[in-house]
Structures are given as structure tokens and as C-alpha cells.
Automatic annotation (TrEMBL):
Key words of the record: Coiled coil
Family recorded in the similarity comment: Belongs to the UPF0749 family.
Coiled coil found in the keyword field: yes
Name under which the protein is recorded: DUF881 domain-containing protein
Entries under Pfam families matching the protein: DUF881
Record-linked PANTHER family: UPF0749 PROTEIN RV1825, UPF0749 PROTEIN YLXX
Coiled-coil region(s): 48-82
Length: 235
């Protein structure tokens, strides 16, 4: 009798254990179906955490790069502003260099300007010293200097261009310019603003008045078509 009761208890225990396992499995399956998502393993969780951390790092790097871009754009604008200033400086330097070449006689030049003609005065029997009424190099220098001061770009004597190395010597009734002799009258031509050049020469007590006081015949006129070739010298 006791054996039969013990057998029944064992059977009931086994049945209870099986039912408990079935109920637990059914509960777990129903929970997964209700949640709509499969269970996440520990490995998947770690991978998701790493991806999330990588995404945050990329976003932070993008913010840093964007900030650097803004700084580079500001620097570029500053460089452009400085370049625009430098461009004007370079343009001015080029213009100055071209003006210097013109003054040195290194380039051909054409334009409007003036002609200043200097002639010896008529012979005066009462004054036996001929030097008192002929054109000397000092008279020519006065005209040339005044023309340059007034803004002339280039000057020539009887068509021979003057350069920074030119020399003028008076030899009796002729003037020697860089070794070339020129008889009177002497036509000093200058390229520049004709009105300004003529005004400078015609100042009261200025160059023209001084030349007239030295018995020099002075003639001033505008010339709209002057051309001076470049000066070439052997080194």
C-alpha cells in the first residue's frame, strides 16, 4: 500500500514538473509575440552600444570640422581683402615702373605735348659780345628742368630724346647733345599735359621771362602728335 502511494507521488511530481516547464515556455513565447521583437543577446547589445558611440563620435567630429571650415572661410576672406590691397599696390608699382622707363628713355612714347623753340637774338652792333644774345646750354637746361617739374613724361631736343645719362654742351652757335651737334633754332619738345606745361613756362618771372631778359627769342606752341623713340646706349 505504501509503495503504491509513493509511486503515485512520484508520478504527480513528474507531471507537475512537466506542466511547470510547459507553462513557463508558453509564457515566454507569448511575451515575445506581444513585444514584437526577438530577444537581444549580450553580443548584439554590445555591438549596438559600440555603433551608438561611433555615431556620437562622428557627429562630434563633424561639428569640429564645420567649425574649422568657418575659420578657414574667415581666413580666406581676410586673404582676399589683403590680396585686393596688394593688387592695387602691384598696379601702382607697375605704373611707377612704366613712368620710370619713360623718364629713362627705355621705351618708345607718343602723345600730345608742347614745343618750345629757342632762337638767338638779332645781331646788335652796339654789343660786340656775341655770347650776350645767343642760346647757351643753361637756357636749354632751364626749359628742360621746368618741363620735367611740370610733369613732362619725355623730352627731346630737335627730335633727339633726352635720357637720364644725357649731357648738353654749348659750343659756339651750336649745342651738342650726347655727342650730336644741333644748330639753332633749338626745338625742345615735351610729351605731357600741354595746358599744364605751358602754364608753368608762362609764369610771371618764370622761365620764359628769364629767357626773354637774356635776349632769347622764345616761341611756345602745342603739339598733338609727338613721338620719341627709345634711347639705346652701348654699355
Amino acid at each position: 500500500m505504501k509503495k503504491r502511494v509513493a509511486s503515485k507521488q512520484v508520478i504527480f511530481a513528474i507531471i507537475s514538473l512537466v506542466l511547470g516547464f510547459i507553462l513557463a515556455f508558453s509564457y515566454s513565447a507569448a511575451r515575445e509575440k506581444l513585444s514584437g521583437a526577438p530577444p537581444v543577446s549580450n553580443r548584439q547589445y554590445l555591438e549596438e552600444e559600440q555603433l551608438r558611440a561611433d555615431l556620437i563620435g562622428i557627429q562630434e567630429k563633424n561639428r569640429q570640422l564645420q567649425q574649422e571650415l568657418f575659420l578657414q572661410q574667415d581666413s580666406l576672406r581676410e586673404m582676399e581683402q589683403e590680396f585686393s590691397k596688394d593688387t592695387q599696390v602691384y598696379r601702382n608699382m607697375v605704373e611707377d615702373a612704366e613712368k620710370l622707363r619713360m623718364y629713362l628713355g627705355k621705351v618708345k612714347i607718343s602723345g600730345a605735348g608742347v614745343n618750345v623753340t629757342l632762337e638767338d637774338a638779332e645781331y646788335d652792333p652796339s654789343d660786340p659780345n656775341v655770347n650776350n644774345y645767343i642760346v647757351h646750354e643753361r637756357h636749354v637746361f632751364k626749359v628742360i628742368n621746368e618741363l620735367y617739374i611740370a610733369g613732362a613724361s619725355a623730352v627731346a631736343i630737335n627730335g633727339q630724346r633726352i635720357s637720364h645719362q644725357s649731357y648738353i654742351v654749348c659750343t659756339g652757335p651750336v649745342i651738342t647733345v650726347d655727342g650730336v651737334q644741333h644748330p639753332a633754332p633749338f626745338v625742345i619738345s615735351a610729351i605731357g599735359d600741354a595746358d599744364v606745361l605751358l602754364s608753368a613756362l608762362n609764369l610771371v618771372g618764370g622761365v620764359k621771362d628769364q629767357l626773354v631778359n637774356d635776349q632769347i627769342v622764345v616761341k611756345l606752341e602745342q603739339n598733338q602728335n609727338l613721338t620719341f623713340d627709345a634711347v639705346f646706349r652701348e654699355s
